[in-house]
Amino acid sequence: MSGTLRRLTKLHHYHYPVVGVVGLVYTVAFHGPGTHQLSIGPVEFDAFYAAVIGFGALIVFSLTDGYYDAAEYGIDESEE
């Protein structure tokens, strides 16, 4: 049971960088700049760059968050 719990907590900890990388790759591979223009009042920007910045920020923030620590999830390191 603790092995399953350990895998699930690692998956929970590392899913943000995976979502960021997959989203960034999908955005760059299947969409291009200039396709969708968004305007909010007098400000206009491209949705492509908004997605790239958003997924890039998710990658940076999730990778600088730290490393996986089983103690944060209440798992003893000696349990296998």
Automatic annotation (TrEMBL):
Q: Which domain of life is it from?
A: Archaea
Which stretches are transmembrane?
A: 14-32, 47-68
Q: Does the keyword Transmembrane helix apply?
A: yes
Question: What does the UniProt keyword field contain?
Answer: Membrane, Transmembrane, Transmembrane helix
Name under which the protein is recorded:
Uncharacterized protein
